[in-house]
């Protein structure tokens, strides 16, 4: 994209992580580089799966931005600029939560990797609840049912009994289940609290509303009642990734794929626990490139989250929500001008503006903005471990997708970058980074034995 012709890049925040966990499941099942449906490989979700050592906001600020830039590993003509946005912590103790668990118990959920894992995951989730929290469970298949309504968060016997009694059978009427869940959420709404529906399914909706467009309209209409919709995906074979992403994107929640009980615990801790309090709704980013410094740029990922530039200050335009302590990573491949390559001077390459609606205890306040300038000071010949991790994830994602922008990227190069990011003594989330190294190498081996079948789900 020419910075002179199109200096603005506008997008909605997106805290989803589903694509990485789903990709991990596919690779472990034998899929390799270039053998996976590109639509299932969303690089922004891969980037946002990991934890980074980004700076915390200054006192009185809601956001901080950490910028790192270095020579692009796959294109000698470009620089890779990685922007790490961090959300501040909530000012007070986490408010009570009303949690509605919407569980798909249709026949398609009978596999071991679906309902049994879902039940184990739900047990992990409810163990972190408090007495002041409320839990409801709604099931849906051919018929929707309220299994539990408004139970105290510390009533383990009632909650676990309801979860353990779930069984799979019948067709899948997601529309009816969602309608019932929103009704229960309204009836158990906690004023001043966090009100959230967590939908758990394989997305195989075959009765009632089933298209992505219809689901979008349905969930968007319900969004105004003040309830967040988060989505947990399970299973394979008939897994409907696009539908699940649509539900979360338009339900003001986040989307995650669960391939193990450990992943369920990770998702709960980061996105669903009592401390995961929404502090900013409708979060939008607008990056403005200075054409004197930047010749051209390419936003990496976020294809489903780009917005019209004029919607940045359109407070009626929906965007993503971010919880206390959340991190968001956005990366650009940029080509600098001769002036931009100069190492002296303090003119910024770009300015990143963040616009958001304060949420939680500050709901009702006017929309706010913060602006961050990024320039030469962000560039280094050794940009650091977090930059190396982001570069590794991007290369891996492009290789899996068979991207036209892959350039000189190789699996060995991506693995080396990931290894470097995990080797530092103070590396954040080292276990996940080492797992990434193994995953890249396994995907490369799988590609060598590819039998010509593209893995879609």
TrEMBL record:
SMART domains: VWA
Domain of life, source organism: Bacteria
Gene3D superfamilies referenced in this protein's UniProt entry, alphabetically: von Willebrand factor, type A domain (3.40.50.410)
Domain spans labelled VWFA: 98-283
Protein name as annotated: DUF3520 domain-containing protein
Organism: Adlercreutzia equolifaciens
